[in-house]
Amino acid sequence: MTQTQRVFQAWKGSNKFILGGRLIFGPDARSVPVTVLLIIVPVILFCVFVARHLRHEFSPYNAGYAILVVAILFTIYVLILLSFTSARDPGIVPRNLHPPEEDLRYETTLSADGRQTPSVQIPRTKEVIVNGVSVRVKYCDTCMLYRPPRCSHCSICNNCVERFDHHCPWVGQCIGLRNYRYFFMFVSSATLLCIYVFSISALYIKILMEHQRGTVWMAMKESPWSVALMIYCFIGFWFVGGLTGFHLYLISTNQTTYENFRYRANSRTVAYNRGCANNFLEVFCTKIKPSRNNFRAFVEEEPPRVVTTITRESEDEAGTRRQKVEDDLDIGDDLMNISQRCNPAEQPHHGLDIDQSMIGVAERAATIRTETRHGSWGSRRSGSWDIEADVSSSNVRESRS
């Protein structure tokens, strides 16, 4: 068995891998550096043009350094959450190489020329019970599996993802079961960072007004970067802050973004709601499941499979042959009954000929029946078949007399 490729090298999805398959991104991973720049650049400007001037503005004399340190540490924390969100398996369900055989349905279609053509079909949906509520799951033609509850196929990454929430272009990754917690923490932390930078920039404008004893316009002219940072954080706050509020609502009701937009108040979403407190505990306090995929493992060649449809066709052919033999036996029995009802006195010569021909039919029928049923039922006494031969010979003697 040759092992020439690793799983990430033969991966059928649209993901991108780095560091030998240790980190996995979506196909739009180029947006991640843009997101990093949108975080780092404002913080650098904040440290240079705002926090640096506040080092000695508070008592004790060097207390202002805390503003600079908090900004740097909090930014590092946000970037770590971004990496956990975008560079890990979001909960990809491994694909099947073949459709599930236990769910296959064999059907026969009748063509125009009267020939029967066997076909294999898979039900598109099936019902599963979740918390006492019946939930319909769909079959994925791409991954050749029935998606688990709350699972959906991402058209961008071309993977089925457990507890699929959405595909986020800003982090270049699907948001699912294994990274939703980090995504929410990233968005909420970015919101707090925006509030922090905005507040300290506004504080610096106020300090400039007090030092110069001027108006707010004079202070804004003194530090234009503070004004630019306030505008930037105000716009960013409505984006990341709005996402934070929306996902707080989703967590409290145990919904995903996909479910909220597609199913609304359907029973599908009611089945997962365990109460507000338990919903938050499920998201933040449960252990994250390990990945189902080992991207660094070697790809193993699949052994040859036996096609089940061939065996089924063979059984159908054998059944047809058995039916034909039984039909022949029924015809032979009918001819025997006809011969017994014939009057040998009125038709002596014809009756003899008919009885002699019936003997051959009966003997052949007995032989065929013995061979056929012996093969299907096992060992059986042949005396029953001899009785038919005796009955046939007695009929011949009666006709001759």
TrEMBL record:
Family listed: Belongs to the DHHC palmitoyltransferase family.
Its EC number(s): 2.3.1.225
Membrane topology term: Multi-pass membrane protein
Record has Plastid as a keyword: no
Pfam families for this protein: DHHC
Protein name (Swiss-Prot/TrEMBL): S-acyltransferase
Ranges annotated as biased composition (Polar residues): 391-401
InterPro entries documented for this protein: Palmitoyltrfase_DHHC (IPR001594), PFA4/ZDH16/20/ERF2-like (IPR039859)
Record-annotated Palmitoyltransferase DHHC domain positions: 138-262
PROSITE patterns in UniProt: DHHC
Stretches the record annotates as Disordered: 370-401
Organism of provenance: Brassica rapa subsp. trilocularis
Higher taxonomy: Eukaryota, Viridiplantae, Streptophyta, Embryophyta, Tracheophyta
